[in-house]
Amino acid sequence: MTKITKPRLNFWQIWNMNVGFFGIQFSFGLQQTAVSPIFSFLGAHHDELPLLNLAGPVTGLLIQPIIGAISDKTWSPKWGGRRKPFFLIGAILASLCLFAFPFSPELWFAVGLLWILDAGNNTAMEPYRAFVGDKLPDSQLTFGYQMQSLFVGAGITLANLSLFMFQHWFSTPVEGGGIFDAAAETVSSIPTWVYYSFFLGALASIGTVMWSVWKTPEIPPTDKELEEIKKHNDGTPAPIIQILSVLLVIFSVPLLLGYLVGELFPQLWDNVNLWVIIVLVFAFAWLFMLYRIIKNNTSNRSIKKLGDTLDPLLEAAEAIGVMPGFLWKLAAVYLFQWYALFVYWQFMPPMLRTSLFGISNEDNEKFESIMTSFREGAEISAQDQSFAQNIQSLAEQALGHAGLMNGTYNFVTMIVALALVPMAARIGSKLVYVVCLFLTGIAMLSMPFITDKWLLLAPMVLFGIGWAAMMGIPYAMVSKVIPEERRGVYMGIVNMMIVIPMLIQTVSFGPIIKNVLDNNAVNAILFGGVFFVIAGVLAMRLNLPKDKLDSAMDVEIP
Fold this sequence. Notes:
Shape: globular
Structural class: mainly alpha
Number of strands: 0
Distance between the termini: 36 Å
Strand content: under 5%
Largest sheet: none
GO cellular component, one term: membrane
Number of helices: 22
Protein name: MFS transporter
GO molecular function, one term: transmembrane transporter activity
Subcellular location: Membrane
Order of helices and strands: HHHHHHHHHHHHHHHHHHHHHH
Keywords: Membrane, Transmembrane, Transmembrane helix, Transport
Helix content: over 70%
């Protein structure tokens, strides 16, 4: 395929192109910091948190490669081009979910909304990664992705600082009935000040994406590429039909088999982690079987029609088969890096409850027992009411301080993101990435031992430098070694390398923290720190071809 010569963009063009990432990452910032505490407010226990966050890795694993493959074969001038229609639809869906999330009356409702929210975010995320690569020449890729990293930091910073500030501005003092107010029509432990952060996130998600859609035109495909796109899509169902069909085919058989196994062995319903693992094994076996059937029966009209419908899935599978060796090495790094990050996001607020505010597991269990009794209509003694009110107040303070800490590291990310560009040009992207992974590991290993809430911000500086590298440098490196015409699907595959470790974490870490780490959030954070150090060691193997090494920064900063 003829390679399009891409014009160099100035600072503000690259800025406008990436603004939409601010809103997408505001949403992710709320997921990182506020969703697990909301689950806890609604009655979830520590060992349940990983599985309750299963939506992130599963939707990322499925949605991003599918959307990437479809967007590679899309060109719609009426709706914005190739990538923009997808991340605009994703932003609209995410905004609606963010608005509804704090109104969750029960744990199951919040978990269901998280699945839809994650589907929206992933629909927006993958085309956006490819969009930056589509627009920029190789010499500007590092700058472009580090600019994206800047907006990652800015979006998550505002999301977390909004939690911290709203908790201080609007938190209701413990007086009267408080959480035991009998006048309330429903019993909900979600603080009202949390609502305001989600409302702000809903506006940011759609507003910033619309700005980038408006300000940044996509590069039209060549006549030859348009002809290939038209030929590929001839007789193929519409994208929405493809997406729904793929999801239906993927989920139907594994879930049915999982249900039958659960009925045959009822004890599995008491061990949901094991049941989920069984369903995932069925899913991978089912996908492999489908792939072989479609590839070995190309002359069968019915099977060919099925293949056309599942084309995005087949495209992703074939791309994995010819994936550059660099990506396999990156997958090993990501296994430990993203497993550790998921541990951090789930267990940092619970860690603060213990390390900073002194809430023990026994306190949590007593609190849940009191709240369960209250919901069932039992009379609660004044002493138990006072105890529960105090635990609720401390938990809210822990969530607010988690927002400050996460806001701090993302503020640092925003500040240092572009500074890493000339550093990468001078000493190489690999070395910058390795050092930053080690700094993040040191940050996590030190957090549980700091009992002053302001000194806790010090390791967040190191974490922010690491996060700046993680959100930009690997994507710039990958973008240099993947085929131009398959950028969308390969960016989706890179996301698979992110969500598979998260998926492994959601089904494995519940038993690990319960049986190995003494159900202690402090031990969970230390565990994550060790994994970051391992990721840093593995990143030493990430060598780019000599003709793809970083060059001097090819953009003028005003």
